[in-house]
Specification:
Rna Polymerase Sigma Factor, Chain: A; flat; 6% strand; two-stranded antiparallel sheet
Length: 184
């Protein structure tokens, strides 16, 4: 298996790095994630039952590593206040909307609010939440998706948004509906 793993590393390294780079858009970070992937592959290779599925298994580890990176990055951002980064005085549109997110979260039914906060803001996986709430994973996924849709609908009713090509909010215009604190 060691020889197979070494040959696979040689064959996949470039493709995996491109795969990672296309998702994180940072050369050094791509290299770090790639290194972590092969450490995980090396330390868990004994768990692979069918060596013909090695490439797919490695790509799954890669996808999970990318998700882990974004999940850890999300945990560092907080709804507990607005920080001005890099000394800039003007806040991004997303940062300006944080008070509205808090207000809208308060209006969600408890089961949806809890699911959304614990997964999207506290970093709990949906599987972990399902275990905690003694629910099926699909039930938790439904709750999270419904909560996200409810929030989205609240925002779209309240404001007009402009997005960049990556889906990031670059500007918004309140519709003066008094449903949120966007106009502040």
């Amino acid at each position: 298996m060691s020889r197979l793993l070494e040959q696979t590393y040689i064959n996949l390294r470039s493709d995996l790095k491109s795969f990672i780079y296309n998702r994180v858009n940072d050369e050094e970070l791509s290299e770090d994630i790639l290194h972590d992937v092969f450490l995980k592959v090396h330390s868990n290779i004994d768990n692979l039952k069918d060596s013909s599925k090695l490439n797919g298994w490695i790509y799954q580890i890669t996808r999970n590593s990318i998700i882990d990176y974004y999940r850890s990055k999300k945990q560092t951002s907080s709804l507990q206040g607005i920080d001005i980064e890099d000394g800039r005085e003007e806040l991004s549109a997303s940062k300006k909307l944080e008070p509205a997110v808090r207000a809208f979260l308060k209006n969600l039914p408890l089961i949806y609010k809890e699911a959304l906060i614990l997964t999207d803001y506290k970093g709990l996986s949906q599987t972990e939440l399902a275990k905690r709430l003694n629910l099926s994973v699909s039930a938790v996924k439904s709750r999270v998706q419904r909560a996200r849709k409810m929030l989205k609908d609240m925002f779209l009713e309240c404001c007009h948004f402009e997005f960049d090509k990556f889906g990031t909010i670059v500007d918004y215009h309140p519709r003066c509906c008094n449903n949120c604190s966007c106009a502040n």
